[in-house]
Amino acid sequence: MPYDANLVLRGLYGGAYVDLDENDAAATSLTVNADGNVCVDLLDHGSGALGLDCVVIFHDQPTTYQNTCQIVVCESDHLTDGWATILTFELVYAYMREVIVTATTAFDATDIGLVFTATTGTDTGILRQFSRNLLVAGGTGKCWVEMQDAGDTYATLNDVVTCTAGVGVGTITKIGRAIQPPMTLVRRFSTMKRYIRCTNTVTAGGNFGDVDILVTGSQHCHVNNLYR
Q1: Confidence at 50, pLDDT banded by 50, 70, 90
Q2: Alpha-carbon distance 167 to 145, whole Å?
Q3: Whether pLDDT at 6 is above 80
Q4: Considering the entire predicted model, what is its pTM?
């Protein structure tokens, strides 16, 4: 299997990064394409039993609201056909706020994906995740909210927040902060196939800037220092 220096699924093209946007094209060869994507040859034995770690590094702040990025790693024994998904990263949202809330009415899992509205500040966003502490009235925890525009900062202390058409109600006990890149995602996988590549899907109009997608096995293959 190649050394880590060769295990790059997405990186530079012509010495520079290409923004990860809606037009990102998956690689079809061992030569880097114009979007910085490339197929990696793991040779006959694939990743081996120990597997590999895929590391995604977002270097830039996305430039658009209400957009998402989905990164998927695929495997195949053939460069041109037979690609199948082996690893899917969590969906990445373009602009997020982390808001600390105390529940006055317990939240419920069905609140996820609903509109999250601040009464006084009139901020609106989509609730994407929340702390389990908020499943109980009186509990204090984090809410991760997808902003809809630049005004959705949740910056009014003690503002009442509600999940529209949901059940959760709370008060903001610490004003929202931006969840900003650089952000790193890591997932482990194993494959018996010879080739791997990434397929990246960004919603229309979205732009996530410079993104590295790297694969490494070095942490599973430690050198015996007695011989160095």
Answers
A1: confident
A2: 16
A3: no
A4: 0.86
